[in-house]
């Protein structure tokens, strides 16, 4: 299992939200590139970037900050938020991103995911965000009547590199991940699943490792590593059997 620190961008700054609410944000660093370098220094092997403004607007909004991050780090990075078409995917990958994450557009247009996987093999990730088990889109502002598992099954056989599963009710709340829902989703598909939302202590990392055999291959952590509730280097050490 890999531990993936998150950088959420809002108006060019590194922030964290509570339950995806844009008016409940905390600025943790005015310099996202510097923050990315810090996570790299602490041993991160992959960086998770979210363009929050882009997620709500439906189009890229923090390109300069994203470019600065990519230029600063040597480790791979994946990006989500406002990615709705092939042109945007190609533009972002050309900047040097390793993977892009399709969220809202994946629910509304599964064929986009299929075509993107065909054109950019190994570089397409699907983001599935859920509230009470139902898929939420448009920066989590809209909850659909589709279950997370049903949506995930639509992408079987496309060549999706991973599914990032976020339980909105846990995100930014430091209440622990939704282990049952994460495991159920991972067991519903053959696509690797990355858990996101709620990680608050090292024990949460150990608990997720216990369901790794179900297909949970990674965990994204944001607020916990910013507040110091979790030391990133310690979390990584646990996944490598060094702690």
UniProtKB/TrEMBL annotation:
- The first-level EC class reads isomerase
Molecular functions (GO terms): 1-(5-phosphoribosyl)-5-[(5-phosphoribosylamino)methylideneamino]imidazole-4-carboxamide isomerase activity
Q: Know the name of this protein?
A: 1-(5-phosphoribosyl)-5-[(5-phosphoribosylamino)methylideneamino] imidazole-4-carboxamide isomerase
Gene3D superfamilies, per the entry: Aldolase class I
Question: So what family is this one in?
Answer: Belongs to the HisA/HisF family.
Q: Please provide the record's keywords in A-Z order.
A: Amino-acid biosynthesis, Cytoplasm, Histidine biosynthesis, Isomerase
Pathway annotation? Amino-acid biosynthesis; L-histidine biosynthesis; L-histidine from 5-phospho-alpha-D-ribose 1-diphosphate: step 4/9
Q: Which GO terms describe its cellular component?
A: cytoplasm
Enzyme Commission number: 5.3.1.16
Q: Which GO terms describe its biological process?
A: L-histidine biosynthetic process; L-tryptophan biosynthetic process
